[in-house]
Amino acid sequence: MKRILALCIISAFLIISAVSIGSVSVPLIKVLQSIIYGIKMNLGFGAKSPGTGDTYFTIIWDIRFPRVLLAYLVGFSLASAGTASQALFKNPLADPYILGISGGASVGAALAAIYFPKYMGMFALIFALASVYVVYTISKVDGHIPVDTLLLAGIAFGFFSSAITSYLVYVGREKIHNAIFWLMGTFNGALWTDVKLVFLSSFTGFLFLILRWKELNLLLFGEESIALGLDVSFYRKAIIFVISLLTAFAVSTSGIIGFVGLISPHAMRIIFGPNHKRLLPASALFGGSLMVMADMFARILIKPQEIPVGIVTAVFGAPFFIYLLTKRKRGEIYA
């Protein structure tokens, strides 16, 4: 419990620090004053002037704070989905995009960028959820969903979606600049509506998973868990739906950001162990913090320009993935 509390404190500190850092540095005390004022204002408490100046308040409340919160919630969602994915597939190399969600979202975003640029997020969400349905339908065998079939169907659909996205980018290259940036992952231009949307999905998905931590533990036993009284088929379907919900909403607002859902569960498993009662909240909190740090680096590394956050996570995540592969090859982590 103390370590979970420590992660909460670290998360809060990183959020406040990330809001203060940017092309214009803002003292931490003024960040806190502006955030408190903004909360009171939105709750209708008739707050007085924030005392930080209108410019500071606009920078913090309208630009930086929603961006940082969105980054945290996306990381929180992807880490939660990654933890559930690794339990479902009994594989520490599984991540939230394994069901073809990112591929479907990419097609939707590229299509919208050409024909309906104002609705890119909506198209990404619809196509992400549709891709899960397609993969789920392909994988179903006599009413059951074999994990291996689901995994292969997700990978195949991902390649197919990638081909379609590449074609759309090629034919619509004059109109698709926003989609290209989105495909590399970005929180630029985050709005409070995005924050609310991802908060609802992340809270709902996480609440279901944390209330079912015992079932996640049992899923690690695979078909043997049937003998332990678990309805494997039902919980497999439910968890697939929750993973899809968490990932699709995250992808629709931020684009394709890899490795956070892979790194967070494995890193926290080393510290907290495999019990999902502790592992799930720890992974979610760590994933949120990790995403905030990645976005902070993306904003400040080559100021005033900005690096897509997906590039930052890939730079750090790819070596970690190779490290996991070598450990698995030596049999040091479960298969």
What keyword list fits this structure?
335 residues, mainly alpha, ABC transporter involved in vitamin B12 uptake, BtuC, 0% strand, globular
Q: In words, what does this structure look like?
A:
This protein is mostly helical and 335 residues long. It has one domain: ABC transporter involved in vitamin B12 uptake, BtuC (Orthogonal Bundle), CATH 1.10.3470. Helix content is 74%, strand content 0%. It is built from 13 helices and no strands. Helix 3 packs parallel to helix 8, helix 4 packs parallel to helix 6 and helix 5 runs antiparallel to helix 6. The two termini are 29 Å apart. The relative contact order is 0.16. The mean pLDDT is 85.
Please tally the β strands and state the result.
0
Low-confidence stretches: none
Write the CATH homologous superfamily.
Answer: ABC transporter involved in vitamin B12 uptake, BtuC
Beta-strand percentage range: under 5%
Per the principal axes of the C-alpha atoms, what is the gross shape?
A: globular
Please name the CATH topology: ABC transporter involved in vitamin B12 uptake, BtuC
* Rg (C-alpha, Å): 20 Å
CATH class: Mainly Alpha
The helical percent reads over 70%
